[in-house]
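Worked example 2:
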Amino acid sequence: MPRRPQIPHELRGAVFTTKQAAKVGVSASMLRGTHFVSVHRGVWRLTDTDLTFGLSVRAAALALPPGSAVSHVTALQWMGVGVGRRTPLHFSICSTAQVMHEIVLHRRLGRLAPRELRGLSVLGPDRSFVDSATLLSVRDLVRAGDALVRAGLTSTEQLLDYTKSSHLDGVVRAREAALLVRGRVDSPRETDVRLVLVLAGLPEPLINVNVFDDAGSWLARGDLVIPELRADHRARWLAPRTRCGAAAEGPPPARTHRGSRLDTHRHHSSRFPAPHCDRGPRVRGDGSMRLRQASPLLHRAVAPHRPQFVRL
């Protein structure tokens, strides 16, 4: 019975080259055995190591020549932005290289300016945003931009400036999407709902703002709040004990303030306040809002109109 080879612990749960395996005592003949699987030419993994997305990207980086960088949607995914397809993997390179299975090589004429992220060379968030415009819809690009801004990898101003000065493939769509990117967005669902509201002709909602009453007491934090319509896209009750998005700073008050009830209105699936709160909140300098008592609602908060939608 053949003796089971001793597998060095450095190779477990990882991908590695033939040279790296030789350094820990694994010969080329051992790599051709049943305990190892070839991922790319000269790149291996153990048979009991699952080839996850992260290991797939690392294996591709090991197989490609020096100077290649993770790019396009693969770069966005490596930054933690969940948009686009996981395969094929996208890399950019300035030289020629052999075509590999499930790897798309984008050959560039100009010099690349990658940055190191978790041990790999990756193109920057702004460049990856523009490059991904050749692969993603406007909606998915806005999702990606919102996530990049939320993660602190770029800003809305920086993204707009980059798209204006860039002449790369896909920049026209990237400019359209960059105009719709906002900060403070906590999830792709908030992006989708915001786009639907805006494209339907409603005012653009404020994102994740705190709402206060006249006395300065906190009422709620609305995910998407439309001050003109006195509406939050999901809150049934605008009350201190109601959870509306992320937790507000400081503990909420113990009492429910009078006039904080939101009545259900089916127009555009929004929630509207009781008739004595129609004048709208006052936006503070810190992005929060203050409710003001007012006269009854007019025309049930919004005038009927035909929504207009466009393909994203």
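Residues 235-310 have pLDDT under 50 and may be disordered. Residues 53-183 form one domain.
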